[in-house]
Amino acid sequence: MKKLFTLLMLCGVLSFGSSADVFAQGATTTQTTTTADEDTAAQAAPVVQDTQTTTDPTPEADVLGAEGEEAGFHQSVKTKFIEGGWEFMGIVLLCLILGLAVAIERIITLNMATTNTKKLLARVEDALATGGVEAAKEVTRNNSSPVASIFTQGLMRSSEGIDMVEKSIISYGSVEMGRLERGLVWISLFISLAPMLGFMGTVLGMIEAFDNIERQGDISPVVVANGIKIALLTTVAGLIVAVILQLFYNYCVSKIDSLVNKMEDASIALVDMLVRHQLARR
Known about the structure:
It is found in: Cell membrane; Membrane. By secondary structure, the chain is mostly helical. Helix content is about 90%, strand content about 0%. The chain folds into two domains: about 80 residues, no CATH class; about 200 residues, no CATH class.
């Protein structure tokens, strides 16, 4: 199910990029058509009306200007992407798409794993008081959070003593922590890989620029500036991807730390609860 969700997220990101390009092209076409209509009307209208139109700008002109700026931004991004070379720029873009897919899947999974530990502890304590350990197991089994899974493992060892309960909680807590951290290694890989690919593209671009200088026999400012600009575009793209993915990575790490702290506190509360329950039975 998680793999299917990741594939759906990947398709969604790709569809978003395609729709943005279509929107940009539609905005450019609309601006061109509107400009052509205005030129035709200006030629057919008298000189007095043309002068009045020039001196009295309308809000429609501002709207067309805003659409033109948006279309120009998208066109500039596409132009820079092509200038940087599709070989490395495409790989860097793929790192961004895959990294975002994994990060979004992790964020949703971590948010679903979050539960109200105080409410869960209260329900477990009520179940222990009314129905004993078996009733408490039913409460924890009906909850899919990592804290409830740790409670289930601890309650299953309650008949063997408090020491076994603590060992079981510690062992299964490590398992749940590993599950929470699953997938972060891929985000970290893409964070490291994107700048390295950008630097590699820059180095290869500089080599190509020096080859052009060697073939021409002199240092032309046009050749040098154009080659260096194209070479540095891959580095900029790699750094942008790394910054975006780093933000998602830090959010996931902070979320995992919060969940682990809640699991530790709840586990201690469960052990104390079992001790009180056993003392009450005596």
